[in-house]
Amino acid sequence: MNKPQSHQLIILAFFVSFSLTNLVVSARVFPNVSSWLPDHAPPRGAWDAFRNLTGCHLGDNYDGLANLKSYFERFGYISHAPPSNFSDQFDDALESAIKTYQKNFNLNVTGFLDDSTLQQIVLPRCGVADIINGTSTMNAGKQNETASSSKPRFHTVAHYTLFPGMPRWPEGTEELTYAFNPGNSLSETVKGVFAAAFARWAEVTSLKFRETASYFSADIRIGFFSGDHGDGEPFDGSLGTLAHAFSPTNGRFHLDADEDWVVSGDVTQSALSTAVDLESVAVHEIGHLLGLGHSSVEEAVMFPTISSRRKKVVLAQDDIQGIQYLYGTNPNYNGSSATSAPERDSSDGSNSSPWSVFTLLTFSYLYFTLL
Which residues hold Ca(2+) 3 (predicted)? Predict the structure, then answer.
């Protein structure tokens, strides 16, 4: 068998590396809300079918309750169990989950599926759970923390919450770098939205944020993904879980590529019922990256849900108190809402093609294995 020639290896490396960087699907990012045709239909989200469960209560057996149990299991309200084990019986575990959910979201604690509870459940939301290791991060955690002393507790001060064990970036950290998955090929306009989101947190704390082109060495790694993308937290299409991020110092920040993301214009005036404001979601998820859990204060950016066609980017006092508890106060912060975009680092190859690293790695592998 003839060995491949060097020029053949180079061509092969190019196509393999190009394919690797395109495993991530392109995000549905719209530069301006005016780019859509009118759409006056109500949004049809991933959980819209739950609306059919209105009025269900303890003792009922109704088609769809098993799926609702899976929803509550996903966000920590029901103990982990294979979805196939869930029945359509409205049992004690479901009633308990509903009561805790209602308390967390400032609803009347009835234990049954009234209109206001289901209207909250079907809203788009962050994929981070409200209850972790049996401990609620929200209202229920203030009066009824986990009974087991062996499990980590959420530290609750005021209404904001922190992750179990209070993870944060190391003491003395002054700057965090962030980078974008090169497979997404995001425009400068989209990157600017994230810069603005980081700036809102930098304004009130001692932390600074800087974009870098070095994706694999960045402190925070941002990417758009579809469906099951390998981290155990699959996305579910339009208006389900919008994004999720991991607590310090993991640094992973993932967004659902199948959402209709808006990067400019007045999202509240969008004709598209499924329009989601990118900066609003980015500000929320950065809070998780820095160590904040979910808040029960509806005005806070760390509240778990956000409606489509809504912009929510200004940090509430609850958000500010929480992040300053972790990292201290920016000495220049005067309580105003003005923000400026952090500097971007182009000294480490930001002008190079997004697949150059993969090309080198792939070529090296092919060269030494095939020659």
Answer: 236-237, 256, 259
